[in-house]
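Before drawing any conclusions, I looked closely at one protein's amino acid sequence and its backbone structure tokens, quoted below without any editing.
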Amino acid sequence: MTDAVPPADANPAATPDATGGQPQGPGFRIVAQYVKDLSFENPKAPDSLRIDGKPAIDMGVEMNATGRQDGLFEVELRLSIKASTEAMAVFHVELVYGGLFALQGVSEQDIEPMLLIECPRYLFPFAREIIARATSDGGFYPPFMLDPIDFASIYVPRQQQIARGPAEAGQA
């Protein structure tokens, strides 16, 4: 099996698969996944390990996709979690988790949603486990477990904001 891109006039959706002779629908294949950047800070340890109650959580989520010359797409899921109390910073985790994807049978208008919704949805459980392990290794019990993320609810409003244009986005 190779990562070669079919010719532009080939239609992968109409190609029979090896098992049943049925056409394959649109989809992706994960070629690789990896931690691109990971940072964990526990600046007030060991005091931060003995707090009462739950800390306030500030979380950021970003998705980014880049096409490559070899026909593959690199997708990055950036997660930033800051936990704090009124008295101190408890922990700060930043993770950039990436994947290399090969798309097949995806129409041009569906490429971006596939890369920024479906691919991050696939990467998320692995990124969630890395963050849980980092907080556990940092001394926190139970470890911090991210709730599932609806990537479509992040993607769609962002696209609507872009469609409105920069002039309208700044107006109230």
In short: Residues 108-137 form the longest helix (30 residues). Helices lie at 108-137, 151-169.
